[in-house]
User: Fold LysR family transcriptional regulator from Rhizobium rosettiformans.
Amino acid sequence: MAEIHVHRLQPKHLNLIRSIAELGQLSLAAQELALTQPAASRMLGEIERYVGSPIFVRTPKGMEPTAVGSALARRAQNVLEEMREAAREVEAIQRGLTGKVRIGAVTGGAVGYVVPAIRALKAEASTVDIHVDVAPSGEMIRDLLSGQYDFVLGRIPAGIDARQFHVDGATMEEVEIVVHRSHPLVNVDRLNISDMAHFPWVMQAPGTPLRQAVENVFIEEGAPIPRNIVNTTSLLVMIAMLASSNAIAPMSREVADLLCRQTPVGDLTTLKLDTPIEVTPYHLITLSGKRLSPIAARLRELLLSRFLSRGR
Assistant:
């Protein structure tokens, strides 16, 4: 029995096997691979020596694969496709068009900036693995410091040394008051914050920037701070509460636009408040000295361009 050295087959051999199997003629295979017919014939002989048996037989209809040839042709097709896929993957990695990115964002920033940036990145690299968390800034900064995020869109909490971070941009978060369309205050023009004090509220926990901004308006207007409050960071809980009660929920303008105007959800609308509510600015924050992967750097670039242009 002849020795078998299939492991010595190279991509050029596999290409010839595939081409002969597909075209049925050595001359056509040689032409497809830019070989002379004698060179293709010599290469076929080399393949058969490595394999230890004929892989094609000549018939009136052309070259037909033997059982060994059929097996090799099938394997060759698979191997060549894997090699092409490997080449595409390597190129994508080198160009920063594949990999994993994990980021965090405050709610308004996620809707207004992160989602459009992700859409733009997916148009360039559809297979990139992106993880987005929406959470309070304190949690995100803690996780950024521990290496769980590539970057975040949020605020640096008091007591955290800002010198640890590279900070870009600054955008105010405008707040709108969201209610169900059946709410008693819906048709009232120029509402004062005091008009809302005795209704139930659903909003973020005490100490969060949005909650502080709302409470500050009550204090500035000399109105009592609401006491009937459900505390949650869950947008779904907020929507459910609004849909089934006269509750009031303060939300970032981007989220209110999404829920009440762009893709109306649960018959929600916004109230007309005579005093604007603004939350302290948030930023694009990266850990100083952190080297981002090419794909993370690309998403950050797309996000930053939108953030800076709209934050002006």
In short: The first helix runs from residue 11 to 23.
